[in-house]
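Reopening this ticket.

The earlier resolution said the output was attached, but the attachment link was broken on my side. Pasting everything inline this time so it's all in one place.
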Amino acid sequence: MYLMTAVFSKVQDVLENYKTSVYEKDVEKFLSMYAPEMRIYDCWGNWEVKDLSLWKNNVAEWFNGLNEEGVLLKVDFHDLVVEEDISLAFVYCTVTFTARLAEGGEQLRQMSNRFTYGLKKVNESWFIAHEHSSLPISVETGKGIYNIE
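Inline output:
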């Protein structure tokens, strides 16, 4: 069963939904682009998520934290490559998250992650079936590198 309330007829529609649902902190809108049997390798928290209800908990926690902090999060895709055929698509890109105060717009922080999305088309709509985010690791410090250099 798909949570779809909108049809994502183009891969770009999924990416636009990602951007707007994060900015709006709309959990259901965000989840609407994921296939129920999705698999996510995320930089934060869990090594792997393969259950939509667990992903919903992660997303709700993320958005609630932004609300508590009074932050709006802008998402930008860079170096975007989309490869698709009739029923499968891969997206490779860098995603930059910029946190600004909702009141006044002051930028608080910014970070970039490398993302790969695997999408599949079901009933003429695209869904994210696989998502992998990563950060390069500094050899000197062993810590993630959060910004594009």
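Reporter confirms the inline version is readable. The mean pLDDT is 90. The two ends are 41 Å apart (CA to CA).
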